[in-house]
């Protein structure tokens, strides 16, 4: 079954009296023929990779291969532990974790693309922070990944999860929506509340451009992962409180797709416009690639 609308997930879950994660798991079993235990074990392994990336980036500074970014996950983690933050430490920890995973990615470390490498910090950031809160069982968190997968599948089928196709809203926005929906299910929300969290999270990302400095998945990608982990937490709490997305979630996804198509190519992962086109952005590109290009010309 190729889900193309969030409403389909809700209707199936409600008709069967189950969670969206159960719907997704049943569909996966039916389509793949793989036993449930094997699928859940595979998802558990994915979560292990996510957690390992979180721990690596918080326990020690991780430096990007380019040399232009690194160590912010570790800095934020130390700041959280100092107890002086404006944001509650539990929420700020999710930010530190999201930054850490993104930095591990920039250092060519092992991550899980959720749904892309450039947005891979948000889902691990919020879920590992929830794990560390000790309020939810690991098994339940692993099942919530099925919910996130279902949301990502709908967005991929009906819109886009590619920055090159739809801007950063398609990557960071989708990841934020996936994380928010997973959290709502973990928090005991209904399938409909899960999709309202998607709508609330995604509409806060509409129009977000993909403007990587030097064409690298570092600036502003890493910081966006950190900040949007907080958005995911906030959207989940809003949905659990009963706040609804007045524009139906499926229409928000459709709007994101249309906006992405209207973005100029310079703002779709080309490393030309936006922050990449600033004087500093251009200088960083020259610093990272200029020397190699000049050396290459001398050897010809």
TrEMBL record:
A Pfam short name: SDH_alpha
Keyword Cell membrane: no
Residue ranges annotated for the Serine dehydratase-like alpha subunit domain, each copy included: 16-276
Entry keyword set: 4Fe-4S, Gluconeogenesis, Iron, Iron-sulfur, Lyase, Metal-binding
GO BP term (any one): gluconeogenesis
Pathway the protein contributes to: Carbohydrate biosynthesis; gluconeogenesis
EC number: 4.3.1.17
Gene Ontology molecular functions: 4 iron, 4 sulfur cluster binding; L-serine ammonia-lyase activity; metal ion binding
Chemical reaction(s) catalysed: L-serine = pyruvate + NH4(+)
Ranges that cross the membrane: none
NCBIfam families: sda_alpha
Family, similarity comment: Belongs to the iron-sulfur dependent L-serine dehydratase family.
Protein name per its UniProtKB record: L-serine dehydratase
Source organism: Alicyclobacillus ferrooxydans
């Amino acid at each position: 079954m190729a889900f193309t609308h969030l409403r389909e997930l809700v209707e199936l879950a409600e008709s069967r009296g189950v969670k969206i994660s159960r719907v997704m798991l049943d569909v996966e079993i039916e389509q793949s023929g793989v036993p449930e235990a094997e699928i859940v074990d595979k998802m558990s392994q994915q979560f292990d990779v996510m957690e390992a990336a979180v721990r690596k980036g918080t326990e020690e500074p991780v430096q990007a291969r380019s040399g232009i970014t690194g160590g912010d996950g570790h800095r934020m983690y130390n700041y959280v532990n100092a107890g002086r933050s404006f944001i509650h430490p539990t929420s700020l920890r999710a930010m530190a974790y999201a930054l850490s995973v993104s930095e591990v990615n920039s250092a060519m470390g092992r991550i899980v693309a959720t749904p892309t490498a450039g947005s891979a910090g948000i889902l691990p950031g919020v879920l590992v922070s929830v794990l560390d809160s000790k309020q939810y069982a690991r098994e339940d968190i692993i099942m919530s990944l099925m919910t996130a997968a279902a949301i990502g599948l709908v967005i991929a089928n009906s819109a886009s999860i590619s920055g090159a196709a739809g801007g950063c809203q398609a990557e960071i926005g989708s990841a934020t929506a996936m994380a928010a929906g997973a959290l709502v299910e973990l928090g005991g929300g209904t399938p409909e509340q899960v999709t309202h969290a998607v709508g609330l999270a995604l509409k806060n990302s509409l129009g977000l451009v993909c403007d990587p400095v030097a064409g690298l998945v570092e600036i502003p990608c890493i910081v966006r992962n950190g900040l949007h982990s907080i958005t995911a937490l906030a959207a989940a709490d809003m949905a659990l409180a009963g706040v609804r997305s007045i524009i139906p979630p499926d229409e928000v996804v459709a709007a994101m797709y249309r906006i992405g198509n209207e973005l100029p190519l310079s703002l779709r992962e080309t490393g030309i416009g936006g922050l990449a086109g600033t004087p500093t952005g251009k200088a960083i590109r020259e610093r990272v690639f200029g020397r190699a290009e000049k050396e290459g010309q001398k050897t010809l």
